[in-house]
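Form P-L/3: holo structure prediction, ligand zinc ion.
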Amino acid sequence: MILRYYADAEIPEWHDRTLRLLRTLHDEHGITVEIDRVDEQHGPITDFPGEVRYPTPEDVYERDLKRNRELNQAIDQTPSEAFKRYGKLDIAGNIAVVDDEGTVRWASTLPGYADGYRPGVESRTAMDFLEDIAASPSNRLCVECLSLLDGDENFCPNCGYEVP
Ligand SMILES: [Zn+2]
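OUTPUT (holo model):
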């Protein structure tokens, strides 16, 4: 599985923090990380331990999000509600969990931190998700195989890894 960052988050601090967390996840957990830079707003990304691509938001929406049934089941909104607000694509700043077949299984629908929105949206924000999985132990994602967890497992249903 792969962690994919749809860059750039609008706020420079979120963008920089996301890059640092992705490096940590790669270095400490061996997680494959990559960037689809759909909206380049900040400086060049150097020394990133994964692929950096420059697709258009339309390409990413068609490939990853649109009519994605797996994603539809994993998030509260439909992908079009979440990423195509008022007919305009709104993808940059989010994080996606991509399986080995290339299907997006989960994606944040709010860039940044929950406290920038309203209480109770931690499960939907990119930064809270990344910080949670970078700070082991995480009950949201198996750091061994990147399977999504629902928070009360003792072991990963996919690979058997014991959740600490
Ligand atoms: Zn696992």
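COMMENT: Residues 2-134 form one domain.
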